[in-house]
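OP here, attaching both records as promised.
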Amino acid sequence: MAKSFKRKLENILKIVTVALCVAVTVVSLIKFDNAAFDLTRKLTRSAESYVRVVDVGQGDCILLHSNGYTALIDTGPAENSEQLVSNLNSSGIEIIDALILTHLHIDHTGGVTEIYDNFTVENLILPQLSTFSEGIYSASFAIDKMTRAGKGVYSAEEGMKFSVGEIEVEIIANYGDFDNENNRSLIIKAVLEGKSFLFTGDAESKTERRLIADKKDIDCDVLKVGHHGSSTSTIKDFLEIATPEVSLISVGKGNMYRHPHNSTLNLLKSFGSKIYRTDKHGSITVRVENGEIIVETEK
């Protein structure tokens, strides 16, 4: 009984500590300014541009790289953070110009600590914060690191736009009013040489229906399938508008959730979308060459 009470007390103290930390550091969020967020002028050794779904097991991490600039959308889970660091190191990346967290689940934020231990992060973009979200510690840690270093910390806003080298990025939706953390995922669109990529975090059918109702531009050439291919995401109505030529699924091999679900895979196939999965193909790199989408897989 005493040990149980002690554990409960420790958990309460952790929550209070994080809540206080967020309350203090959130004031450091600054209004987004395109003029102060120019990621297009760096002199670079390589002009290559690509989008990569990094294999981080059962989690999400998307790398945008162009003209020497790098943005990272989510960091995957903590248990596979060494794999993420190794992937970035092998690509010659030393600076993360923009780190974006789509929502506060630990399979999307758990690698934050390792990212800050191994790379310089110049800008941080966060969704709406909630002290009840399981990834709040990661967000708080990142905010504290950025604040101490005097770097930019931005609260994600719908319509926020910036470029990562030749890749144009826009947050097209931010439904922070949803109670479900998955449905609070930032919806991000990127365009590289005329080809569009749609990243939906773990957004489920409720968010997908709202995107349709709000007439958001979800048409895309490449879709990072929501919620690891779960049956709760990627509904038919959504795909009828998105019409992805290529679908990318970030998912762990033999995961306990049985992602991706057969119904989702069959629906994607019925739309003629080419499916690539990190559990089968490893990290997946997408380039655009002469107007064509080129997909390269690790396995």
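Record two, same layout:
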Amino acid sequence: MASLVDPVTQRANLDYIKTAMRQPMLERDHEFALAKKWREDGDEKALHALVGSYTRLVVSVASRFRNYGLPMGDLIQEGNVGLMQAAARFEPGREVRFSTYATWWIRSAMQDYILRNWSIVRTGTTAAQKSLFFNLRRLRAKIEDKGQPLSDTGRQWIADQLNVALSEVKEMEGRFAGADQSLNAPLRMSSEDEVQDFLPDAGPNPEDVVIGLRDAETRSKWLAEAISDLSPREQTIIRQRRLMDEAVTLEHLGKELGVSKERVRQLEQRALNKLRLSMMRKVETPSDLLADE
């Protein structure tokens, strides 16, 4: 998916990258002291100093994902979100370098952003699929660097390396081979015709819609006439048991009508048989009562 960046934004991104790369590196003790001040005292100056020193780390990680066709500036912004999350969760007492801890959060934030925006079709819903998405090219390159084309044997090797099914490797390979295309994209540079203009319409045509509506009205009329021929008690049972969004229970109707629920069931079955016979007299074949798909 190609992305276009206007010159102003591009210059701003370059300025930010240059500024980030000029930030001083922190010694271990200084890093620990800043993290402790932020963690224990809520010192925002310490937070800014800690985060600011590792914006270069965000830029470094973003450069590894530049081949996915997304703006570098957007990747950096997402990485900065991950950096802030790392700062909020970092525990100095564990004696782990903040850079090591932050790298995981930065990379995770960028990967999530790529998966959300790389394609309009959702990609990588499981941990295994995410691993496949971000490692397929690297593993495929290992095979192709040996002068061998990627065969099913190679695909199976990749599947084994990443613990995914062979079918998933093939599907992801196909996703990389094709790109999203807008339905509003012109077919040719010299034409105003768009891709969507030549897509077949699988829906019913207007004539079929009108006929379907008319048939439905006729069937509804027949049903109303058939119900009117039932006794008042049978009409009550059919309406409350068959024509309501939530059917009333046999027990509830039995109490309302003063009979047992078994008697209600018998009356319901008798009323349905009457309706069926009444409707059958309206048509030549039973299939005429069915709505067309």
